[in-house]
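Supplementary Text 2. Reproducibility record for the structural model of the 184-residue chain.

All settings were left at their defaults, and a single model was retained for analysis rather than an ensemble. We include the record here because the model underlies the residue-level annotations in Supplementary Table 4.
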Amino acid sequence: MLESTIDALAQDGWSATTVAVVAERAGVSRGATQHHFPTREDLITAALEYMFDTRMAQARAEAVALPQGPGRTEAVVTRLVDYYTSPIFRAALQVWTAAAADPEMRARVLPLEEKFGRVAHRTAVDHLGADDSDPRTHRLVQATLDLARGLGLADVLSDDSRRRGEIVKVWASVLDASLSVDAT
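Retained model, structure tokens:
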């Protein structure tokens, strides 16, 4: 049901993602869905948690394949940007947009956003091998996450992959040089 919720959000948007639509996509009855998730908000909140857990498991698995030495920073930045251009991000974006106008949904999403933000930052720091105790490095990592999110937003309405790839290369070289300077 949770994967069906994510798919519906990513493909059809917030308004079209109803309990009935999710139940149909999942091949279960609406009653069965509502047994586990009494409200649409409960279902979507659970889907957000599932998206987060799925993404973190992917990030841990991908970390093993990251190159050591030259090319690592670009590989990390590329993976971050890939996440923000993925269906999971598109689904989350639908929920974040709805939460901006719905106080009840906002109250559910804000704690998750804080949790997701902290873990995403920590994961980026770990993958970059950066010293997050340095305030400048902390801001550089946060700027990288903000850049990745912005590139993801730019990709929502049209394929921006060519420009995005060029930006990733340039930012990775700037970040690599900046982190190297900070390490000395």
